[in-house]
What we know:
Blueprint: H1 2-24, H2 26-42, H3 58-73, E1 82-86, E2 90-94, H4 96-129, H5 138-171, H6 181-188
Antiparallel strand pairs: 1-2
Amino acid sequence: MVTVVVLLNMLIAMMTESYQRVQTNADMEWKFACSTLWLSVFDNHSVVPPPFNLIPSMHRITVMIRWVIASLRGSFDDVPGKISWSAKRCCYWDTDVDYSMRKAEEEKYEKLIIQLIRRYLHCNGMQSRCPALPNLTQDFKEQLKEEISQELRKSLRLLNRRKTRRRTIRNGTISDGRPTANAEINCQQIPPNCQC
């Protein structure tokens, strides 16, 4: 009997505590629910739950009508930007500002990917040469700098040879592939302690 009373009191205390927690968070919960509702239903580019996603939103209908009218008109001089269609955005105007911003973002993304690939390949090459990469000594670092500068000089010599071959082929003479004196001078201008 005593255990039943104790358990009942514990149940009442737990229910009171959970009610108190809900009451203190009620304002925050209400704001969160309202913002979730706004983002899911009332936003122009919202994604609606599955049965309703087949019906286009009013914003999409108006954009599509404007797109069809502008494309049927035939003269795109008065329409700023370019009229396009994609699976992600349906029918849309690609204004010059949007296009230039997207181009800049794509270029930044491509540069970032190229840098990441180069870093990955460089790290893999370094790890295959030296498995104890974190424990590099100063002598090994100097040796690596020297190797990198030598590789840079070799690639510049190769580039200069290719340039001279192109020049001689354009002029109608055939060359044996040796670089001219100017190309050798240009390659030798790179200092041996190049900080690449």
